[in-house]
Write the structure tokens for this entry.
Amino acid sequence: MDEDLPLDEVGPWAKEKHERLRKYIDISRPTRRKFVQGPGGATYIDLYCGSGRAIVRDTGEKIDGSPLVAFKSSRDGGVQFSEMHIADASEHLCRAAERRLIRAGGRPSLEVGRAEVTVARIVKRLNPYGLHFAFLDPFSVIETLGRLKRIDMLIHVSAQDLQRNLHSYTQPGDARLDRFAPGWRNAVALNQSPYRIRAALLDYWASQVRALGLPPAQHAELVTGTEKNQRLYWLVFVSRNDFAKQLWNKIRSLSGQRELFDGT
């Protein structure tokens, strides 16, 4: 039934990320129910939805992508999101995710384009009194979603990308890090070790998120590779609501406790 649709390719660590997504949606079910039963509703936002299904490199295992994980978790828990908004730069992949969600019983709203563009269109359609949950990464997207009164975000921050590409990203004229942390060149000294540059960059990013009135939870979770234990990405939970952060702390760790960006 699913063979007519494309698959994304992911590493085995994607399963950890999805497990935390699933657990947070499950543990936040009582709060979501209050909004679903009220006039505000509860929405899920995924700006990098891909095709909705993926194949794990090396093992060939097929797994649900984030939009399917989110939908099925809310459905199976008995409190579905009132709305699901999915988007991707690839219309081909986005349409595949849409079809998979519909086959599973969902009714997603779809946008095609770069996240910085689609997020603005989605926010305009959201109920300002609703409860919103987003799964994303770039700063410009966080800034737009941060205008919502009630918004929780699970943010992917790539440790591997910063480690591999830090030298090229910090060259004069390279603006790629500006999407992640606007104004970083005025705050991060480059005459120090790569380790300290990465740490300063991540601290600056966190300070900019706090400046939006969206303090990150104290503890982030580092996801590592299965073979060489290489650092892959941080999952950072952001919310204005202290209770939401308490829920995150209950489910975030599959290993041990870490301070935000500890051991960058």
